[in-house]
Design goal:
231 residues; Outer Surface Protein A, domain 3
């Protein structure tokens, strides 16, 4: 299938004060700018911006120059201009900070915190109309906070490591994310780590009525006697 855009990379060196900058650009097949990035050697990071075909902003990222890892929160926008999600920066390659995802209407869809790739604390998910849908809780241990090893196949099989995908905007311009290309995918996949489940996980219907509760013990196991449906 013919590519939906052609990648044009122009390496330009310009002087702004004492700062040396390099600029990379990519364009859709019709010549419309798809992404633009510049490197500031003084601050030592890339500012990268991507756009929809109509010129509206699609995403904003700030990357460190060696491994192209995010060094600040990344923001993606829906075609209507509303924020699609805010993904926190990476600390040593691991996502750390507050995550927020939004519906195209601008209403909050999901929010919670990451610490070095782990979900931690309370996570909340909402219906499109704004009502609370689920409330879940994660307990980060001292062993989790010092986690530093390569993930294995077993980590994914046991559910300790999970690939999450964020989608936004138009699907007909989907491209693969490559570390050597300064353009952005409409689907962004990253790995998260799931620590121990804790407290009571609650599911609500749109009227606010509890439809399910699951209580976890100190080992992260379900307590069967507390699992029931609320009809």
């Amino acid at each position: 299938m013919k590519s939906l855009f052609t990648l044009l990379i122009a390496l330009l060196s310009v002087t702004a004060g004492f700062a040396q900058r390099m600029v990379d650009s990519a364009f859709f097949s019709n010549g419309v700018l798809q992404s633009y990035g510049h490197y500031d050697s003084t601050r030592q990071y890339w500012n990268l911006y991507s756009f929809y075909k109509d010129g509206k902003m699609a995403s904003v990222r700030k990357l460190e120059p060696v491994h192209f890892q995010d060094c600040d929160s990344s923001i993606a926008y829906n075609p209507n201009g509303q924020i699609a999600w805010i993904l926190p920066h990476k600390e040593g390659g691991y996502i750390t900070g507050k995550f927020e995802e939004f519906y195209p209407s601008g209403k909050l869809k999901c929010t919670g915190n990451y610490y070095r790739g782990f979900k931690t604390g309370t996570w909340l998910e909402y219906y499109p109309e704004g009502q609370l849908k689920t409330e879940s809780h994660f307990l980060l241990t001292s062993a989790d906070s010092s986690f530093n090893r390569h993930l294995t196949k077993a980590d994914y099989e046991t559910g300790f490591a999970v690939n999450e995908t964020l989608s936004w905007g138009e699907t007909d311009t989907t491209v693969a994310l490559k570390p050597d290309a300064l353009y952005f995918p409409i689907h962004y996949t990253f790995t998260i780590l799931l620590p121990q489940k804790t407290r009571v996980w609650t599911h609500y219907d749109k009227a606010g009525k509890i439809i399910r509760r699951i209580k976890y013990n100190t080992l992260g196991k379900k307590k069967p006697q507390t699992q029931r449906s609320y009809k």
